[in-house]
Design goal:
This protein is mainly α. The chain has four domains: about 100 residues, no CATH class; about 80 residues; about 60 residues, no CATH class; about 130 residues, no CATH class. It has 23 helices and no strands. This is DUF2336 domain-containing protein. Pfam families: DUF2336.
């Protein structure tokens, strides 16, 4: 009979007579000795067998002591960790929140069949790898998702962020937390800004003060302006997805296109022309960068803008092109020059007064942007 067998027999006799508190202290001491390896000639096999027997102890304090001592150890046997993760609430929580032995597959399984509290603990772990984050995003409720977004060691892929936005776009707190992230894809950010605009325009006090129609219009204009500004930081590959999203949401309106031109967002405008006209990207860029006024106007009309305004948009393209070729800061903004062109036309046509008002707003917004930029430079 080996020494391990003798040790186990002695341990079993002692367990039958010891109090709950003594058994809990013994479980903690045994587990600490196992995790630290601080004792010479320590019999790991005998210790594992003894701890396995303690899993069946009827006193929850004993199993909790075992969980506390093993939870942070990367060498803890899975044969002990997995049963403890299935134990009563407090014991399971200790292991689920801390154990590095649990794999992503183990945790995904716990997410799928666990409670809100278990999913919240998993969402707060460090780290949360992409597959696990995706599982939480698919199944989790508001509490778990909020914890996941706040967890700086959670690795959320673009697809996971998109799925969270899809499920919780109407949830103000989650929407706000997503919008604060620097890694949020442009399409997701745009969608959330649309939700903010819709929520604002539908707010009772705003609608009462401004009127429903005006509230919706102002919210949409603000959303368009934010999207135009956002486009500056969008990588080329993502610009295609952003423009397609805008097309599907009927956001590629004449006003939006004019804002893009007046703000000098050539990449956004070019991709919009590709999307709306069906012309190849290289041809669109060639027309915008060096095509004649007639070619630019023909492309704009093919995008769906009428002949009564296509000339004005063509003028905006030419002004944007000229501004890009200048080495010095322009003395007038693109909106200012468009207003001058409208005055030269004498305001002819039913659409001209409405366009003049829009362009004037864009001019004011551009002047304010330049003033803020100058103030930052001076500071």
């Amino acid at each position: 009979m080996g020494w391990s067998h003798v040790i186990i027999q002695a341990f079993l006799r002692w367990v039958e007579q010891a109090s709950v508190s003594d058994r809990a202290r013994a479980a903690a001491a045994l587990a600490r000795a196992y995790t630290t390896g601080s004792q010479a000639n320590f019999d790991y096999n005998a210790a594992e067998t003894a701890m396995s027997l303690l899993l069946d102890d009827p006193a929850p304090q004993v199993r909790q002591a075992l969980a506390e001592a093993l939870a942070d150890c990367p060498r803890a046997p899975r044969a002990l960790i997995l049963p403890l993760a299935e134990d009563r609430t407090e014991t399971a929580y200790t292991v689920i929140a801390r154990s590095p032995v649990l794999t992503d597959a183990d945790l995904v399984d716990l997410v799928a069949r666990g409670t809100v509290e278990i999913r919240a603990l998993i969402a707060a772990r460090a780290p949360v790898n992409p597959p696990l984050a995706a599982a939480i995003a698919e199944i989790g409720g508001e509490v778990e998702i909020a914890i996941l977004i706040d967890n700086r060691q959670a690795r959320l892929s673009a697809r996971t962020l998109s799925r969270i936005a899809e499920r919780f776009a109407a949830h103000a707190a989650i929407r706000g937390a997503l919008l604060e992230r620097g890694d949020l894809p442009a399409t997701v950010r745009t969608r959330l800004m649309e939700e903010v605009a819709d929520a604002l325009s539908g707010f009772g006090l705003v609608a009462h003060v401004l009127g429903e129609e005006r509230a919706r219009r102002l919210a949409r204009e603000a959303c368009d302006g934010a999207t135009v500004s956002l486009s500056e930081a969008v990588p080329p590959g993502e610009m295609v997805r952003l423009v397609e999203h805008l097309r599907l949401r009927a956001r590629l309106t004449p006003l939006f296109l004019l804002q893009a031109l007046c703000a000098g967002k050539g990449e956004l405008f070019a991709e919009a022309m590709v999307c709306l006209t069906g012309i190849g990207e290289s041809q669109v860029r060639a027309i915008l960068s060096g095509g004649s006024g007639h070619a630019v106007r023909a492309m704009i009309e093919r995008a769906g803008l009428g002949r009564d305004v296509s000339g004005l948009y063509a003028s905006a393209v030419m002004l944007w092109r000229r501004e890009g070729q200048q080495r010095r800061e322009p003395t007038e903004t693109v909106p200012q020059r468009l207003l001058a062109r409208l005055r030269d036309l004498g305001g002819q046509g039913a659409i001209a007064p409405g366009l003049a008002e829009i362009i004037e707003k864009l001019d004011i917004a551009e002047r304010r942007r330049q003033a803020r930029s100058a103030a930052r430079d001076a500071a």
